[in-house]
Specification:
- The structure is a homodimer of 378-residue chains.
- In chain A, 30% of the residues lie in helices and 22% in strands.
- The first copy, chain A, is an alpha/beta fold.
- The first copy, chain A, folds into 2 domains: 138 residues, 3-Layer(aba) Sandwich (Cytidine Deaminase, domain 2), CATH 3.40.140; 220 residues, Dihydrofolate Reductase, subunit A, CATH 3.40.430.10.
- In chain A, helix 3 runs parallel beside helix 4.
- Chain A is elongated, with a radius of gyration of 23 Å.
- At the A-B interface, helix 12, strand 14, strand 15 and strand 16 of A face helix 12, strand 14, strand 15 and strand 16 of B.
- Chains A, B: InterPro entries: APOBEC/CMP_deaminase_Zn-bd (IPR016192), CMP_dCMP_dom (IPR002125), Cytidine_deaminase-like (IPR016193), DHFR-like_dom_sf (IPR024072), Eubact_RibD (IPR004794), RibD_C (IPR011549), RibDG_C (IPR002734), Riboflavin_Biosynth_HTPR (IPR050765).
- Chains A, B: One of its GO terms (molecular function) is diaminohydroxyphosphoribosylaminopyrimidine deaminase activity.
- Chains A, B: It catalyses: 2,5-diamino-6-hydroxy-4-(5-phosphoribosylamino)-pyrimidine + H2O + H(+) = 5-amino-6-(5-phospho-D-ribosylamino)uracil + NH4(+); 5-amino-6-(5-phospho-D-ribitylamino)uracil + NADP(+) = 5-amino-6-(5-phospho-D-ribosylamino)uracil + NADPH + H(+).
Chain lengths: 378, 378
Amino acid sequence: MNVLSAEQVILDAHYMARALELARKGVYTTHPNPRVGCVIVRDGQVVGEGWHVRTGEPHAEVHALRAAGGQARGATVYVTLEPCSHHGHTPPCADALINAGVGRVVAAMQDPNPEVAGRGLQRLAQAGIAVQSGVLEPEARLLNQGFIKRMEHGLPFVRVKLAMSLDGRTAMASGESQWITGPAARANVQRLRAQASVVLTGADTVLADGARLTVRAAELGLDEATTAQAMSRPPLRVLIDGRLRVPLNAPFFKAGPALVITCVTPDNQYPTGPECLVVPGVEGQVDLRSALVALAGRGVNEVLVEAGPSLAGALAQQGLVDEYVIFVAGKFLGSAARPLLDWPLEKLADGPQLKITEMRAVGDDWRVTAIPAPSADV
Amino acid sequence: MNVLSAEQVILDAHYMARALELARKGVYTTHPNPRVGCVIVRDGQVVGEGWHVRTGEPHAEVHALRAAGGQARGATVYVTLEPCSHHGHTPPCADALINAGVGRVVAAMQDPNPEVAGRGLQRLAQAGIAVQSGVLEPEARLLNQGFIKRMEHGLPFVRVKLAMSLDGRTAMASGESQWITGPAARANVQRLRAQASVVLTGADTVLADGARLTVRAAELGLDEATTAQAMSRPPLRVLIDGRLRVPLNAPFFKAGPALVITCVTPDNQYPTGPECLVVPGVEGQVDLRSALVALAGRGVNEVLVEAGPSLAGALAQQGLVDEYVIFVAGKFLGSAARPLLDWPLEKLADGPQLKITEMRAVGDDWRVTAIPAPSADV
């Protein structure tokens, strides 16, 4: 392998950054596929760009090759994920690149899909094309955290959205909780929903708040074209309801298709209702890991959890949460108010370590992102 | 008054920013005086700079005039607070500026001290010197929030420092709480203490945690010269102890001079102990507003409250808090842990509105600054 000049390393990062920008355009639509972008460069000029829009449609490389036409010959191809080597809905991109006669392929990361996993790059190299992987890899991984988690662990990436006061409370003791955060935070939540494969909630939330958890076009705060994209692939709304307590006339069910995950036989409860998925459970409590495994089996990459302290607390206690997104409102709800998570702990050492990765203002509220910190014994 | 050119407005802001930078050097030492900086500019050159170091020593203007010498004649003087017009420990700065023959004086703000309150600038104007006030005024006010509050309201600026987990808890139910936040946050707290006129705490904290609340040179994280300055003017440690429950052999009392504010007659308890200040109280509970008024009467500009949820909650409930500085550790302590403030509220509408003014990373922890939000009915 040739040693790259410093100049080339900078150029590679530059074009990969553009490819990532293109990949991000698919953030609302590619599910269950990964978000992928591609840039083709010849003699210092971008001759083709493309991004994957939705499953069944061409991959990013194919869009870019079409745009480049004959100029792809001898060109360098930047792609945010290793080109595929297998026949899925579409023929392998590796073959398309070989047929187009490209000179070099730079990938941000290997495809974690076991059907690819290096074979795409290998195939290109065997055809005499210079290949490289790992340019802006952390950024590329971040964009497809869910797809990667599903491929590598058979579980979706679980993001728990919480909204709390500055003193860590979600609602008054009475349950009163509406409008803790402002419109900018709510738009932010709408976009988190639209990006997710699945929005997951629990029976308490649906019963107490009449929650529907839909994506509402007017509240996304996106331009018209992006709003249309987001609305074309709404997330599946999933209800964890171990005892099937939520009646069919709940607003949640009236708001559109939904999936119920339960651990009781649903025949009596929903003879003509939403799809039910039965997973193991104990005493009417759905085994949450089983539920997530089942969702991953259906191609779910990213789960957004919007639930009360009980379901969110249970997921947290079982180590099933990959990221917390906490909207913090500038107010105190006081010491009698409801806790962020139902998770009684006795010793300080039992408290889970988190790494706060970001805090930023969202309108008058603030958004805190935190991930479970790697600890010595995990 | 002449209309200033845009160029002059920019230059004025530039030199005032430098004067504020100088003023900030006094952040640890000027108590009970305000922090003031001064820059003298002639023909586009800085010919003198000065800042007020400590009470009894020369004011910023005098230092700057000494540095400028004869070059002060016809020069422009930038000062972060209106020059004084009264005889205090030192003669009036307005007279010194007039005697030096300066041409123009630009102040960031009027002196809120009722003994000055515009008279300094008036005196200068009467001597034929061009005067102006209000350049970078918000920044100047921020630097002397305590002095301004004391002058305008007869109360100190009260900053409540809290440390909590991401779920808004300060300690386990058992009381276990050591080392929630890391060394960078602790150094930050040390600097907050060193800046304060007074560090205020309650009997519970001193009894349960053996808290001393001293400033420790090694933990300030400052350079040697600044550390020496900070240590030369330690904040007075003040204990609110309505029933005089804290014994004289508590680490708090052994750590140096302290003031006890109580509402019982202290004769029996402290025959030879620390100074006691008796203020009104009900059933052994010190009236907190009276305590703060008494402190302001002693020249206290800034109070840093480091106390448990009970005293901090009482100050918050009584509307006596000007700023919350909350250190947030990346961990959950769980729903059984102790609350941020003892302040039970029933209705959402009763919860105080806050404006989060800053969130920033401090080592592995985060620091949130919030102020009570102005509401319609206040």
